[in-house]
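Observation: inputs received (chain + calcium ion).
Thought: call the complex predictor directly.
Action: predict_structure
Action Input:
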Amino acid sequence: MDMYDLILKKRGGGELDTEEIKFLVENYTQGLIPDYQMAAFCMAVYFQGMSQRETADMALAMASSGMQYDLSSISGTIIDKHSTGGVGDTTTLIVAPLVASCGVPVAKMSGRGLGHTGGTIDKLESIPGFTCELMPDQFIDQVNSIKIGIISQSATIAPADKLLYALRDVTATVDSIPLIASSIMSKKIAAGADGFVLDVKTGNGAFMREREQAVSLAKAMVSIGKEAGKPTVALITDMDQPLGYTIGNALEVKEAIQTLAGEGAWDLTELCLRIGAEMLVLAGHSARPEDAYQVLQEKLSSGAGLDKLRELITRQGGNPAVIDEPSLLPQAAYQTVIRSERSGYVKCIDALKAGRLVMQLGAGRQTKESSVDLSVGIELCQKVGSYVQQDDVLAVVHSNRPISGEYAAALDCFTISQAPPRHRPLIWQKITAEDV
Ligand code: URA
Ligand code: CA
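Observation:
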């Protein structure tokens, strides 16, 4: 087999077979195919696309390029959730304990934040003592005994994707649906779950700003799950304003605790219940999402979800007292109140701008090696649709230095208008295996 022929075939709109895809992924990972040929191939994919079968083959070949977790010694069906990256997206910290409190195992591998979106591991590490570095055996034992474990994704997962992503990043080939879908799913599949619930964001704070693109990405990923024999559903969800009321690591942990105590923002709570319901159905716990939703609601109101979070924190070395005393979480030195310059309806809260601002305050990484300030962030005091008077508080910025330029940036996240904004649904649609 010759890489030149594969590039030519794809450039002409042809379909590569399974062996051909394996060949290019394996040889590229081993350094036997040079970057310039792989770059040419990615550009051909960018223009010609890939069939569902090719996309699934790509994901599977990349998944087997490195370590693949075997979670078969965990009893029960393991359903993983994945979000394409939201701003203030605290859902894992809420959904994982809720689902585990139903007796369904949650064995989760998460990432750290990069760019304007946060990562679950950074959030958890704001709990004093909490560690996400467990040995595989320890992780499996823990999930078998308390039904929940969250660890940081091994660096040895899907090395082919790491190489390919770095190449795409500098050759203008990141935003190709089959390449994104296979990239995300390769890591998920290597992490060993039996099925997946995908939260595909759309809106100004999302990777896929347009809804049609988000739907195409969701279909491509659901189709990979189907081809791989791992049941997958996707929810297309709104990211036109940050989720919940907070953005920032420690602030989001506090918000997760409040949400599990039944005192969370409506949007965050609803999204968690809907994602959790799909997980319970795929795990075989409930027949219909409506039934699962009710079960999860009961776990919220009984405090069972919060108890499960306490158990997780204790088991992974964290101080469980943060649950009753959130002031034990890292606190920023300064709290600056942002006030509305006029009266009117909150029309928009720009999630992308807010996410970038929180990153500038120190909560995000510019590069993989940078360390993060766990205490900084933004607390929103209004959501889209609220009516505010001039001088009402819109948000509180938590920082470790006095803010000036950031004040204007924080104010700029909000658009205030005289007319009430048009309602946007939180969940636009669901994509299942029947839709692909
Ligand atoms: N996230 C990924 O993991 N891969 C992509 O290609 C794009 C976003
Ligand atoms: Ca199992």
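Thought: report the result.
Final Answer: The mean pLDDT is 95. The two ends are 31 Å apart (CA to CA).
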